[in-house]
Amino acid sequence: EGQVARDAVFHALGAWRDRAISDALRARLTGSERERSDGGPSADEARSIVDAVRSKPFQSALLDVVGAMLVAADRARAEGGAGPKVVRRRISDRLQTLRRGVRDDAREFRQLDAAARHAARKRVKRLRYLVDLVGPLYGARRAKAYSAVLGEAQQALGTYLDLVVALQALGPAVAETDLSSRAGLERMREEAAVALKRCKGPLNRAAAARPFWR
Fold this sequence. Notes:
The protein contains 7 helices and no strands. It is mainly alpha-helical.
């Protein structure tokens, strides 16, 4: 139930983000100021997000996370008083697992399908945010440098995948419209192809970055 509730929240947030990206690129495609939005959620989108976050299953899932953290802390204290060392080891294991995933993604990115490329972006993002959270435990300077490399990969992947989402949303609608819009759509396809090539360098650098937690 908690997994379903979490997925509902992320789905609502993702739907808003995808719509905002599509609106912005549609406005650029058509040159129409009327189609531009402020990027914020519509009334229906905001209601959907709020309802998902306030839902009883999601709130229960948050309480479960807090409870699990307290149980983990008690278990760590019971392991001979080596709480901080146990916590650091577990964090390091998680960092290393995400890093291995990023390395696999970098090696195979051009062969991945669209869903797997989206997953690769999420993995880079999760690793970066975890690095930012726990970096001071290992040395803020090294963690900051590592995060910066991940940030470049996240930005490159985001630029490419935003174009992919927009093309999926706009392509069928634009195909039957005026010549100018079709030409704009073709330019967007070319941009996506260039953006895909530009993912290689940042992603490879992220994969090769020396882990600071060892």
